[in-house]
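Need residues for this backbone.
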């Protein structure tokens, strides 16, 4: 009878399917793209053991319930335990699935957060790069930028550096900034700069540089050293702004202030000298007028001519002082359009005007031939040579055989005229002072102290200069350099 029965494999019950899920090995591929990775073997074996235990309990309970051999109370208890035995594996599977889903969601959320953070960082870096790029473009358009290594070797220069200095980028990379040294600053200036940045501190100062073509330019410089974690300088960043116009304005203001101070000093000396020199002839005139009036009243006539001559001398002296001040006031500006001046003709006319004094001094005047022509203010140039000849007759004719020599030397750009004498000469310490306004080597000597100051002013107004070569007891040579005809005049 058993042989006639057909043997069929048992079909697993739904409960068994729920409680005993099919196993896959660790190397088995997931069944679908959404299937999570297999659990760790140890944790899976733990739940597998509990499933076996619960199945072993559920089997007899199932038989007991189906046999209906239990009492009503025992039957209800067995059925409850059976329900629990069936429910626990299902609950376990739900818990496992929920835990797996939670872990998967947590992993996805973590991955999403990491992606979001990465994107935020990348966006921040992109914004920073864009901002730095914009700042670099703005900085390159405004300032000279250079980078150097710790030893000062140039590693980077921007276009403006090349434009201002005149050097190509390839000419500067690998060099140092000594190639721009103008020689204006002392060595101590750069020693202090290097001491500051070598200590890791920023430095700022104004530097005069020399461009490739030899011209000079000023820059307001800021140097920032960059250090590593150990505090060692690894790089220098130098940012410079061209301030040549500003420095030229400052120098012009400084020069104007110096000239103003000099003018104030001259004004003080002018007030003192003018009051003394103008008042002195007036005192003389007033005194001799008093003598003259008294003698006329007393009927004495033997001294009248003497008094009149002294009064006339005082008037002449006052006229010289006033005329000198007027000439000096005009010496600071051109009073007429420049014309071609024949200097030789001017000098011979002046010698004729001074013929009486030349005879009195028994002086011999020699004028060199072929004196060149110049382009200048005729009246002022006449004053220059008039004062030089007058000065030679006053102070250079104290020798036994007074001699005055007038001539010139020439260069491509200027003509140098000289008036020399064989008088007592001038000590070296007074060579520049004789050109100062109202300065006289002898307080009791004749003259106003204006003549040589006027000579220098007129020479400088015409783009030239004036100086003296002299030694005590060895005569003097007064020089005046003036531009040739093609050289333009300079404004005062």
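Answer:
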């Amino acid at each position: 009878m058993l042989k006639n029965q057909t043997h069929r494999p048992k079909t697993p019950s739904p409960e068994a399917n729920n409680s005993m899920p099919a196993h896959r090995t660790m190397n088995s591929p997931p069944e679908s793209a959404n299937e999570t990775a297999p659990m760790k073997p140890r944790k899976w074996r733990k739940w597998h053991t509990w499933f076996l235990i619960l199945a072993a309990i559920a089997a007899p309970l199932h038989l007991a319930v189906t046999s209906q051999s239990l009492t009503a109370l025992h039957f209800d208890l067995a059925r409850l335990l059976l329900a629990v035995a069936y429910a626990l594996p299902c609950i376990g599977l739900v818990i496992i699935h929920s835990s797996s889903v939670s872990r998967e969601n947590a992993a996805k959320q973590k991955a999403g957060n990491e992606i979001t953070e990465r994107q935020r960082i990348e966006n921040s870096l992109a914004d920073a790069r864009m901002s730095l790029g914009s700042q670099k473009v703005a900085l390159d358009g405004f300032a000279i930028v250079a980078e150097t290594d710790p030893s000062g070797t140039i590693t980077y220069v921007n276009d403006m550096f090349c434009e201002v200095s005149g050097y190509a980028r390839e000419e500067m990379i690998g060099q140092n900034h000594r190639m721009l040294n103008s020689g204006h600053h002392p060595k101590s200036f750069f020693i202090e700069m290097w001491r500051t940045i070598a200590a890791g501190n920023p430095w700022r100062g104004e530097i005069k540089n020399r461009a490739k073509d030899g011209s000079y330019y000023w820059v307001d410089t800021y140097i920032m050293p960059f250090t590593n974690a150990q505090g060692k300088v690894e790089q220098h960043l130098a940012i410079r702004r061209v301030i040549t116009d500003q420095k030229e304005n400052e120098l012009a203001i400084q020069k104007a202030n110096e000239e103003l101070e000099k003018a104030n000093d001259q004004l003080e000396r002018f007030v003192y000298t003018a009051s003394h020199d103008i008042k002195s002839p007036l005192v003389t005139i007033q005194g001799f007028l008093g003598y003259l009036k008294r003698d006329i009243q007393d009927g004495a006539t033997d001294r009248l001519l003497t008094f009149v001559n002294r009064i006339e001398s005082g008037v002449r002296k006052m006229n010289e002082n006033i005329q000198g001040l007027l000439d000096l006031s005009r010496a600071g500006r051109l009073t007429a359009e420049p014309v071609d001046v024949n200097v030789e003709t001017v000098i011979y006319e002046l010698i004729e005007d001074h013929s009486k004094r030349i005879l009195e001094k028994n002086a011999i005047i020699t004028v060199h031939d072929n004196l060149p022509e110049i382009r200048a203010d005729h009246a002022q140039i006449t004053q220059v040579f008039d004062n030089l000849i007058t000065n030679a007759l006053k102070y250079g004719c104290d020798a036994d055989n007074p001699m005055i020599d007038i001539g010139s030397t020439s260069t491509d750009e200027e003509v140098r005229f000289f008036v020399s004498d064989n008088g007592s000469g001038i000590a070296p310490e007074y060579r520049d002072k004789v050109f100062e306004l109202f300065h006289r080597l002898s307080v009791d000597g004749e003259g106003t102290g204006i003549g040589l100051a006027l000579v220098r002013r007129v020479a400088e107004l015409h783009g030239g200069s004036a100086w003296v070569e002299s030694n005590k007891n060895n005569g003097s040579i007064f020089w005046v350099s003036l531009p040739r005809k093609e050289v333009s005049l300079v404004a005062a």
